[in-house]
Specification:
Elements lengths: L10 E4 L7 E3 L4 E3 L4 H14 L5 H19 L1 H12 L19 H6 L8 H10 L3 E4 L2 E5 L3 H17 L14 E2 H4 L2 H20 L10 E10 L6 E4 L5 E6 L4 E3 L2 E6 L11 E3 L5 E6 L2 E5 L2 E14 L1 H4 L12 E4 L19
Antiparallel strand pairs: 1-16, 2-3, 4-5, 5-13, 6-7, 7-15, 8-14, 9-13, 9-15, 10-15, 11-12, 11-14
Bound molecules: 2-oxoglutaric acid (AKG) and fe (ii) ion.
Length: 349
């Protein structure tokens, strides 16, 4: 973040952050934990159905869930201390801290010329003329980063992972991830990318999802490898517009599959949309569209993920619990809600 921390705006999460949408990877189930009785009543049967049949297995799950609830309670203070410590992190490629035009694919720059940003049809024509595709309703892909830049970023991420003892997991679904927000990369590089480029795209292509009023974001890197974490289970994101940018090519398979939008009955019989990964290319979609990553069959896949948020949408309904957000103040790393006169929940945009 470029400003001193004291200058940051207040940030907020919905209270559901602390105990809902806890993912039990072994049984492929998202759960809520209030207390042991509620948990047993609500989830014991579904867990049994998924193969968690012995007392020992159930105790293991309960412990895992309670540990996750504790992790979430201290998430924001841990994030803050990691973020402060990461200010000392020495980049091996310091040139990538700030966004430079040379990092962007020439086709992306051509697509983003001012005369292409006048209306949706013109932008979609420019997208198609510059290596982009429309894969399904509001599912787009297009080239964005050069291969050289992807390589620099991959090297930086792996150096960062090796040199930091403690880092927060971006979510409970992928254990090899790095939070670009906690690393400090978001507030320099990604803020420019979103302000200078992505807001113009979301305004035209996702106007029905707050795309014209994106005022914060969360960003991280996910990594899959064939042996430990080959895939990502079905979920939707805590954002309004999501994007996934593939940073490497040394892997096979790993397509992204997109299905219906959460809560939109009319989508239920839609054909799934399957999009291949391509190094330097971005896939953009509605965050609330269910999606998952097919398993990779060799190598390691590394993607940058950005969840763009609009307080105008999420203040009405928290996407994760589906209710009016029960807003709680946090020190840093809020989920894009605003309260009262605050104009935006994120210090970055
Ligand atoms: O693996 C991908 O490309 C998508 C990851 C994703 O959906 C997420 O982390 O929310
Ligand atoms: Fe996702």
């Amino acid at each position: 973040m470029s400003q001193p921390l004291t200058a940051l705006r207040t940030e907020y999460v919905c209270s559901c952050f602390f105990n809902r949408q806890i993912f039990i990877k072994k049984y492929g189930l998202h759960v809520t934990y209030e207390d042991d009785n509620q948990f047993e009543k609500d989830f014991r049967q579904s867990l049994r159905f998924r193969g968690c049949s012995t007392e020992k297995q159930y105790s293991e799950v309960l412990l895992q869930v309670k540990t996750e609830v504790e992790r979430r309670k201290s998430y924001h203070s841990t994030f803050l201390s990691n973020f402060m410590r990461n200010k000392e992190y020495r980049y091996i490629h310091p040139e990538i801290i700030q966004l430079q035009t040379r990092f962007l694919d020439q086709r992306f720059l051509d697509m983003m010329q001012e005369n292409n940003l006048q209306d949706t049809d013109t932008l979609l024509q420019a997208l198609a003329a510059n290596g982009g595709h429309v894969h399904g309703p509001q599912v787009y892909s297009f080239p964005i980063f050069t291969k050289d830049f992807c390589q620099l970023l991959i090297e930086e991420i792996s150096n960062f992972k090796q040199s930091t003892q403690e880092r927060s997991l971006p979510n409970t679904m992928n254990f090899e991830g790095v939070s670009l927000d906690e690393m400090g990369f978001s507030c320099t590089f990604l803020t420019s990318l979103i302000k200078n480029y992505f807001q113009s795209i979301t305004k035209l292509l996702f106007s029905n999802w707050g795309g014209g009023a994106i005022d914060s974001f969360k960003s991280f890197v996910v990594q899959y490898d064939k042996d430990k974490h080959p895939s990502l289970s079905k979920h939707f994101d805590n954002g309004e517009v999501s994007m996934s940018i593939c940073l490497n090519s040394e892997f096979e398979a790993g397509d992204l599959q997109l299905e219906q939008v959460f809560g939109q009955e009319e989508d239920l019989d839609m054909e799934p949309v399957v999009v291949k990964q391509q190094m330097g290319h971005c896939i953009m979609h509605r965050s609330r569209q269910f999606h998952f990553a097919h398993p990779i069959t060799s190598g390691v896949r590394t993607n940058m993920i950005v969840w763009m948020r609009s307080s105008s949408i999420r203040n009405q309904m928290c996407p994760m619990c589906g209710q009016t957000p029960d807003i709680q103040e946090v020190q840093i790393a809020g989920d894009g809600f605003t309260l009262g006169q605050d104009s935006a929940a994120c210090s970055c945009l």
